[in-house]
Amino acid sequence: MSITVETYATLAEATSAMRDKTQFLGGGTMVVRGINYGAQDYNRVVRSTDAALRGIRNEGNQISIGAGVTMSQIMASSSTDFLAPVARLVGGPAIRNMATAGGNLFVRPPYGDFGTALLALDANVQMSDGQSLPIERFYAQRDSQRGIVAAILLPRPAHGVFRFRKVTRTKPKGASVLSIAATLPGGSRITEARIAFGAMGPTPLRAKEAEQALEGASLDATGIQRALDTCLNGLDPSDDSLASGWYRRAVAPVHLRRLLLGKES
Amino acid sequence: MTKSPVQFTLNGTETGVFVNGGANLLDVIRREAGDLAPKLGCAQGGCGACTVMIDGETHLACLTLAETVEGKRVETATSLANGPQLHPLQKAFVEGFAAQCGFCTPGMLMAAKALLDANPSPTREQVTEAIAGNICRCTGYEPIINAILTAAAELRGRISA
Interface pTM (ipTM) of the complex? Predict the structure, then answer.
């Protein structure tokens, strides 16, 4: 099937060009893969060379990441140093030169670990029409909307508050059996924890009962037990070539325990 | 089928081709430009056999729409040798038995070239990381890692000589 590729200098022009059977192109790691394998749900590809898409900016205590920022840029920028360990686990170097922050919000499991981290960080997704969506709401309506993501806005976490763990069959490059991202503010007594799982449902999902179970708890074996007991509630992992849903459910609390206790095993 | 004109620099040569809508860069390099160095492995970003450099950064040609390289500088493994004179990476691959079937070799060479351009003195771990996106089913990787370290040492020697 022939695809029409349209390039626009500004994001506003690209937004106007979106209509039925049209796919916006970010880094191409998922869209072009779809074209290579005969994707039938679109016959137009729209892209934008707008420089604003490629910028990382500090805005007060917030960081704005343009949707077209690549994983390599995330790793290189001092503004996003806390996200570098997440970006580093996305594909090999060539993929990281291509894959974008905005694109990661649209990929399906077992991919999308960067979005999992953004969910734990309470990011906001800024659409090109000016709308700003809390990332959880964005994920809930992701597959039914036609808009283009312009940028991702997130607060910079205090040192040591953000944690991330990705479980793969192969290292250093591999798709997720599962990933877990958490922000754990409060020091000795946790307050307002955020825990997000990747590859444990159709989109990254928060483990809200586990978050509540950590309220006021300390990060030791006793303090985290109730969070481990409840962390699977609301998660719905699928079977794929990497792991069955059953396996993912079986090992998720083990890896959450390791993440919360800061231990490798 | 409508074709679009695309102009880019391929291995230092101005190249103009007409491409089918949705054609990936790998197809265009191989079929239209006739450079058979980059290989089609998985067509989904998993194997790295199609690794090329675009404006100095490694990219996977199979996941790059040809129309997006308009005006850009594309280099494949064909760019490495200077006539009969092999690049130190190629020489080290030959002498260190780092190529067996050879299918991954052009991609491996470009991943290694990108590493050495940015970091002339990589550690073994950094070499491993740099080729993490390139699959080899013959060598077990050790000869490839050794060859890249050997080439790095030779290139450093040339610079200091």
Answer: 0.96
Number of domains in chain B: 2
Torsional sign, CA A57, A63, A69, A74: positive
pTM: 0.96
User: Tokens 């500088």 correspond to what residue?
Assistant: B73
Spatial distance between the Cα atoms of A56 and A41, rounded to a whole number of angstroms: 32
Bond prior to B38 in cis (omega within 30° of 0): no
- What is the H or E stretch that residue A28 is in? none
In this structure, the dihedral spanned by the alpha carbons of residues A250, A252, A257 and A258, taken in order and rounded to 10 degrees, is 110
- Residues from B contacting A (CB-CB < 8 Å) are 1-2, 4, 20-22, 24, 43-45, 48, 51, 57-60, 62-65, 67-68, 111, 114-115, 128-134
User: Which domain, by its residues, includes B25?
Assistant: 3-79
* Cβ atoms A92, B132 nearer than 8 A: yes
With CA atoms as reference, the chain B residue closest to A6 would be B67
Q: What share of chain A is helix, strand, coil (3-state, %, to 5)?
A: 35, 25, 40
- Residue ranges of the domains in chain A? 4-48, 51-155, 162-261
CATH architecture of A51-155: 2-Layer Sandwich (3.30)
Tens-digit pLDDT profile for residues A23-64: 999 999 999 999 999 988 999 999 999 999 999 999 988 999
Chain A residue with the nearest C-alpha to that of B53:
A94
Assigned token pair, B2: 């409508």
Q: What is the pLDDT of residues A95-107, one digit of tens each?
A: 999 999 999 999 9
Helix (H) or strand (E) run with residue B148 in it: helix B142-160
B64/A32 Cβ within 8 A: yes
Q: Which helix (H) or strand (E) holds A101?
A: helix A101-104
Rounded Cα distance, A249 and A237, in Å: 7
Question: What is the residue type of B2?
Answer: T
Token pair recorded at residue A36: 């290579």
Domain CATH number, residue B12: 3.10.20.30
Burial class (CB in 10 A: 0-12, 13-18, 19+), A66: buried
Q: What is the DSSP letter of B85?
A: B
Q: Is the CATH number of domain A162-261 3.30.390.50?
A: yes
Question: What is the maximum span of chain A, computed from C-alpha positions, in angstroms?
Answer: 59
Q: Are A255 and A181 in contact (CB under 8 A)?
A: no
